Amino acid sequence: MADFGKKVDEATDGEKPQILGVVALAVDRDGNTLLSHASGKTSLKPDAPPISPSSVLVLASCTKLLTSLASLRLVQAGTLALDDPALIETYLPELWHLDVLTSAPGEDLKTAKREKPITLRQLLTHSSGSSYDVLDPRLMDWRSARGEPPMAFAGELPGAITTPALFQPGEGWAYGGNLDWAGLLVERVSGLTLGAFLRREVFDVVGCDARVGFDRREVAGEQGVVQTVTNWEDGSLVDYPWPPAQLKSHRGGGGLDCSAENYVKVLADLIAVEPKILSKDTLALLFAPQFSEGSKPLAALRAASPVFTSMTGALTGSLSLASINHALGGLLITEDNPELGKSAGTMAWGGAFNCLWFANREAGIAGFYGSSMFPPGENRSSELMGTFVKEVWSKAGAKGKL
Description:
The radius of gyration is 20 Å and the shape is globular. The two termini are 17 Å apart. Helix 2 packs across helix 8. The strands form 4 sheets. A 7-stranded antiparallel β-sheet has the order 2-1-14-13-12-11-10, with helices on both faces. A hairpin with a 4-residue loop joins strand 13 and strand 14. The chain has 2 domains: 243 residues, DD-peptidase/beta-lactamase superfamily (Beta-lactamase, 3-Layer(aba) Sandwich); 122 residues, DD-peptidase/beta-lactamase superfamily (Beta-lactamase). The chain is built from 14 helices and 15 strands. By secondary structure, it is of the alpha+beta class.
């Protein structure tokens, strides 16, 4: 088995590191640590402190899981329902009244009225039709025709995600602002900001400290978040500021900053024998496959493998598409990976800066790999994440956990 720690140390060491810093943690259902390693620095400054499990990272799309949990807390309480379109019509009228694109790329833009209802279940599984404007040329043309720049990651809500749908609800899969909409739904139903709701209903429940939230100044203090970086042409690391603009909106699809140790506290609860955030029945719902075989959303998801492999390649890169589905909290692996062993039932997703989380309630293991390296799927990061995942499964197996 390759030594994950040694590889990370090599990648983050020296005058010209390949990656700025990495922190990785994994636990089992009994609360035991399977792996803990941190290597590298928190910024490009010569005197930057070392990265650690308490360093605050830019979560980007790893935020989505937390918004799913917030939504399911309200479902569990009976305040929201997964399949009640009236909730969307009442609380998200901006989304409810959007049209659906009918033109193909390169054609004059054409839209039609939405014919099918939108539900929270579709938002949590990216099957509502909503997509990020930067991911579809037709949405970019739509923005341009309105004299607007791309706003997916640099605009306030709801305007940043208020674009025509790519398909009728429930008839496809498209990665986009669905969890931002779900976060807005949580806010409007609860009367709290998403950050305040998550603090009360998720973070405090599992004992997270102040190093998680949407207000970067409060979360990271003077030290700030781990600097987000990318590779320059000569292989050196350069600054990659994120987000592109300082936003007031609490974006449920990608706005949280969080330390690795806080994120793992949440993941640990998802696999715990006696969970606190969600009941066992609701957790079973969280991890259940949502798309039936032969359905349009499942076919579209599997056709979008470049999207999900850039986020979860360490877990899904060697799997057949037949083993891919979607849960209410992320991508779902439904068959064992021969390279890992018992991995069916693993739910996972990632973030733009090569962060990766996974949780398998049946196997009782969960882990988080955190870094600040853009773009997602960057080669060296993907290699390290793959080594991390394999070592976690190996350690779990050696301890008789699998």
